[in-house]
Amino acid sequence: MRASSNIATPEMAPSTNGTADLNDSAVMAPIRYISTLPSKNIRTKLANALNIWFNIAPHKLQLIKEVVIDLHNSSLILDDIQDDSTLRRGNRTAHLVFGPAQCINSATYMMVHSGQKLQGASQEHPQIFPTWDLKWKYDARCPSVVEYMAMVNGKTGAMFSMLMRMIASLTQTPSAWLSPELDQLMQLLECLFQVRDDYQNLQDETFTEQKDFVKIWTKGNCHIP
């Protein structure tokens, strides 16, 4: 016997006009999943630290934190798909739980949604450039130190700089804060964070068990000293 079509499910809310009103539970599920995994929350901490200088309103700072976290989580979902990873922070990657297609859809949705949240709040932020790490993995080639650092600056560094610039744009005098020195500080902090993160992934067994993409990288002809 078929179940009645009038029974509401988590995906379907009752409607007064006889149609199904689907909610966002499916598209949000991968985002909610990855947001529950353990995290160092480095971007939230950086936002709080920067606001000691910038001193923007708490509700504006909270908006920026939410946007940056959403963008970061979206990038993690896509990174895990591209890297064929099976673990993220010691747990199954989102695409193994929800499927690659749904995760790509969810990550794209959150990126668009984050842009909509920022409209009227932040008018400028740097572009996050595509990275070369996927090509190096595909070619089984270790980059030089110069190449690696250039990739890092265009990846995590762009996110740190974007965070700083979004906060600056909400101050009364945005141009007064946008200086080469502050950009350089964001790059240095980013380099410290990313290089340490990558080094731990190579050397720390506990860290490697929680994030296994390096095992896939080293299966090729790339020999890391």
Topology of this protein?
Blueprint: E1 12-13, E2 21-22, H1 25-35, H2 42-54, H3 58-82, E3 87-88, E4 91-92, H4 94-98, H5 100-118, H6 133-139, H7 145-154, H8 156-169, H9 174-177, H10 180-203, H11 205-210, H12 213-217
Antiparallel strand pairs: 1-2, 3-4
Helix pairs in contact: 1-3, 1-5, 2-3, 2-8, 3-5, 3-8, 8-10
Description:
The longest helix has 25 residues, at 58-82. This protein has 12 helices and 4 strands; from the N terminus they run ββαααββααααααααα. By secondary structure, it is mainly alpha-helical. The N and C termini lie far apart (64 Å). The protein has a two-stranded antiparallel ribbon with strand order 1-2. The chain has a two-stranded antiparallel sheet with strand order 3-4. Helix 1 packs across helix 3 (58-82) and helix 3 packs antiparallel against helix 8. It has a single domain, classed as Farnesyl Diphosphate Synthase (Orthogonal Bundle), CATH 1.10.600. The relative contact order is 0.12. It is globular and about 45 Å long.
The SSE order reads EEHHHEEHHHHHHHHH
Largest sheet, in brief, is:
2 strands, antiparallel
Domain module count? 1
CATH superfamily: Farnesyl Diphosphate Synthase
Measured on Cα atoms, how large is the radius of gyration? 20 Å
